[in-house]
Structures are given as C-alpha cells and as structure tokens.
C-alpha cells in the first residue's frame, strides 16, 4: 500500500513510519498533499475548532544552554536580560486575562537547562499549575530537562502537558545545539509521558536545515511510542546577536538551507497525515506570515495557535486580531480538555479501515 493511502486508511496512529515513507508523502504534489491533509484532519478533529493558547515567560533569560537561535542564552549578546522568576500572583493574573480573552491552554516557560537543584522553583510552579487548572484551563510548562521524579511532581500538581521540543532532525541537531543531546531531549519527553503527562513537542523550521531534515524531524516525532499530543511548529524569527542569525545571513540566496513557505506547508501537511490525532500548533513566527499563508497552514492541518501579548521573546498576534481572523474563516475556539487521544498501534495490528464521520473523535 502507498504511504499516503496507509496514512489515510488507518484508524489508529502508526508509529512505525520509515523515512522513505515519510519522504514519499512529503513529496506528494503540493495541491494533493494539502487536500489529503485536510481530509485527514476532518476524520480526526472537528474542522471548525482551533485551540487558543497563551504563553507566558515566568523566568526570562540567563540560560546556560547554547541553542544558537535563542535570545535567552547567556552566551550571546542580545537585548534579553536575565530576570528572576515572576511572582505567582502575576502569573495568575496573566492566566485570567488569557482566559477572559478566549485562551483555553496556558503555557509557562522558564529559561533553564533543567530542574536539578530547583526544588522550591518546582514547588512554586506546581502551585501555579494547580491554581490555573482550578480556573478551568489546561496547563503546559516548559522548564528544560526533567527527570521521572520531577515529572511525577508536576503530574501531582495537575499539569496537562509538558513542552520539550526536539527542535529539528537528529542529523541537523548538532549544528544548532551542543550543550544537550538529542537523546537527552527524547529522555525528557519519555519521562513526562511515563508520568502520565501529555507531551508537547515539535520544533523550529528555518534553522538552516534542508528538506531531508524536515523528514528526519517528522520521523523522530512520528515514531515515538506515543505521538505528541501537541506538536508546535515554529518559524524561526532570527534574533540579532545570536549565531544563527549570523549564519543564516551568510547563506546564498538560492541555498537549499533557506526556508521556503512551501516547505512549512509540506511539513505541516505531512505531520497531519502521519500523526492524525496530534494538535498541530502554529507557534512562534506566525506573526511574520501573511494572512493567506496562515490560512494555508490551517488548510494543511493546523488546529491551534498561540495568541496574546508575547511569545517568550518574540512578538505574537493578539487575541482581538486572532478572534476576528477565526470568525472570518468560520472557525471557533476549542474548549479546554476536549481532545480524546487514539491509542498508538503498529500497522500490522490494525483492523480494516472504516470510514469515519467528519466529527469523529471530537
Ligand atoms: S532555547 Fe531554551 S534551553 Fe535553549 S538557550 Fe533558549 S532558554 Fe535555554
């Protein structure tokens, strides 16, 4: 069976994709690819619903890691200054503001390598999570690497999801980060999933990677034992003072390492086809896209956006603008805690494919 047909006829997520199969899907003629991704989207999600999430930086800057694209690394000279963790009252007030504006998931980010030696910080974050959950919102945190014990503490606090991106393909990763390995990232994702927390993991497009790296990136995600519940796709906003901005500015105009919009679209559509039940989140850099480009990303299977005042250190489209955009396109905000996940299985274990109504699994 052709990989595209395999993706479209399965009732359960497949986690045995090969790079060749993913490549074949990725290279489907663009019009057909986006159309089939939309067909897939409608089988597994309510096509009218988009999840609105808001991200707050609770501890900005001063990070010891060397991610070449990041304004928060203390190794680079950027406009971001190291700050202390913000107070719980301020976090709750921002969460309430996000809720009042229609966001149903509230994400909190701290610029840390890991949670080692941060017992009291973890406790305070746990309190934030519990209180935000009580407000009826889903919670997500991104705090760097966590071990099983720390993941269990966050689960106890009621955390919905933990974000830890793989960033890019395994092959391209060493060109971007040297202070933590790809496998360390995968370990954290495994730790949170084992603790019963949903994994939010995706990456950044535009790090000087090639199309093969997009395929490698999707391969890592789609062969996880459990597909990510949430898959953020960021478009890099090059930050002055970071090595990545320097490197990208030196790429020749026709370099195959320069990100084209069609590659963002192909990555999203392929992700939708091979990870049908994941929520695909158009994340940082969305504000750099024209309206019709965002529209195409939704056609290709995106069903969540970050909205609010800021995306950590970059700009973000605001709530009013986004609500108006969704209204214009006939979409509506998703309620919190709505998605139910399909169990992951191997292709060989699957029952024969059955047609599903457009609203299945919602
Ligand atoms: S991306 Fe995260 S881990 Fe990497 S330098 Fe920035 S804050 Fe630190």
TrEMBL record:
Annotated region described as Disordered, given as residue ranges: 340-362
GO-annotated biological processes: biotin biosynthetic process
GO MF, one example: biotin synthase activity
All residue ranges annotated as the Radical SAM core domain in the record: 48-277
Domain of life: Eukaryota
Extent of Basic and acidic residues compositional bias: 340-349
Cofactors that this protein relies on: [2Fe-2S] cluster; [4Fe-4S] cluster
One family name in Pfam for this protein: BATS
Free-text remark on how the cofactor is bound: Binds 1 [2Fe-2S] cluster. The cluster is coordinated with 3 cysteines and 1 arginine.
Protein name in the entry: biotin synthase
Source organism of the structure: Hyphopichia burtonii NRRL Y-1933
């Amino acid at each position: 069976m052709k990989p595209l047909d395999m993706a479209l006829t399965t009732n359960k997520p497949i986690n045995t994709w090969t790079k060749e199969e993913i490549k074949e899907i990725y290279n489907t003629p663009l019009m057909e690819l986006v159309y089939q991704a939309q067909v897939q989207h409608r089988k597994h999600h309510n096509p009218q619903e988009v999840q609105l999430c808001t991200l707050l930086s609770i501890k900005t800057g001063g990070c010891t890691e060397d991610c070449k694209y990041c304004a928060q690394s203390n190794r680079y000279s950027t406009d971001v200054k190291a700050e202390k963790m913000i107070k719980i009252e301020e976090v709750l007030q921002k969460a309430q503001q996000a809720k009042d504006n229609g966001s149903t998931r509230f994400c909190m980010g701290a610029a840390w390598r890991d949670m080692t030696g941060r017992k009291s910080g973890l406790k305070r974050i746990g309190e934030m999570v519990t209180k935000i959950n009580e407000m009826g919102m889903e919670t997500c945190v991104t705090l760097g690497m966590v071990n099983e014990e720390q993941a269990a503490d966050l689960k106890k606090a009621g955390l919905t999801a933990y974000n830890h991106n793989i960033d890019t393909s395994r092959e391209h990763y060493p060109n971007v980060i040297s202070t933590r390995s790809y496998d360390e990232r995968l370990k954290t994702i495994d730790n949170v999933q084992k603790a019963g927390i949903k994994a939010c993991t995706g990456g950044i497009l535009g790090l000087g990677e090639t199309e093969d790296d997009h395929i490698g990136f999707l391969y890592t995600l789609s062969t996880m034992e459990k597909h990510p519940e949430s898959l953020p796709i960021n478009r890099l906003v090059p930050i002055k003072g970071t090595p990545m901005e320097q490197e990208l500015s030196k790429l020749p105009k026709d370099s195959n390492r320069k990100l084209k919009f069609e590659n963002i679209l192909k990555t999203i559509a392929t992700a939708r086809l091979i990870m049908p039940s994941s929520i695909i989140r158009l994340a940082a850099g969305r504000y750099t896209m024209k309206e019709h480009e965002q529209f195409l990303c939704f056609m290709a299977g995106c069903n969540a956006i970050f909205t609010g005042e800021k995306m950590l250190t970059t700009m973000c489209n605001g709530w009013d603008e986004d609500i108006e955009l969704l209204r214009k396109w006939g979409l509506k905000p998703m309620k919190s805690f709505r998605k139910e996940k399909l169990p992951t299985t191997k292709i060989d274990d699957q029952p024969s494919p059955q047609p599903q109504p457009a609203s299945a699994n919602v």
